[in-house]
Every structure is written in C-alpha cells, then in structure tokens.
Amino acid sequence: MPQSLAKILVHTIFSTKERRPFLRDKPLREELHRYLGGILARHDCQPIIVGGMEDHVHMLSTLPRTGNAAEMVKEAKRGSSLWLKTKSPGLHDFAWQNGYGIFSVGFHRSKPCVNTSQGRRNITARFRFRMNTGNF
Q1: What pLDDT does residue 127 have?
Q2: How would you class 131 by CB atoms within 10 Å of its CB: exposed for 0-12, middle for 13-18, buried for 19 or more?
Q3: Which residue from 97, 131, 104, 83 is spatially nearest to 12, judged by alpha carbons?
C-alpha cells in the first residue's frame, strides 16, 4: 500500500482553571465550540462534535495521521484561550487547567460521546463524578 491511512477517534475533555464557570454565556460558549472545531480542522483533526458546559469542554475528533494527542490539545487550548480573552473584558484572566483527559473511542461507541459533547447535564454530571472519584 503506497499510502498511510489512519482514522483514530478520540474524546478529549479539559476544564477551565479551577473549574471556574467562565463559559456561562451560551452564545459565547457555542461560538467557542465552533472556534475549537476550526482549530482542530487546521491541525488535520476532523472535528465530529465539540460541546461542553460552563466549566469544561468535550471534543470528539480524529487524531491527525502524523501528529500526536498532546500537540492537538496544546494547540486547541492555546488558540481558544487567546481568542476567548479578546471576546470580553471579563475574560481577561481566562485560562484552561493544566491537564486534560483524552480517550480513544471505537466507531461503534461514538454516539455516547456525541451525547456528552452536546452538553447533556445528566451525562456530564455522571462523567464529572467518575473523573473526580477516579472511576473513569
């Protein structure tokens, strides 16, 4: 085979610094999700869905064939943080947390990730509990 092919789905989650609810404004949050999708696309990651709540983001996307997960997350967080700081004076001290979670997802298991990324509170609450208690 003269070409290299890869289609690896990942579910990425990261929070605002100190879990502060910087993203309460729903139109701004939705614009952020679109912006993050653009960052992913520019880095050869196919964004499937980006969503989240007031204090965190979920992204379901592909990994780039030649890139790596850490670089993808670094660029998404860096670019979106810089962009958010220009959107409102109240966001001048916005920051993402230092860490993140990223998990590979089989194609047949991508629907639950889409539901979570769409910001369904009951799913997010269960996920938050699991992440905080280390049961994920």
Answers
A1: 47
A2: middle
A3: 104
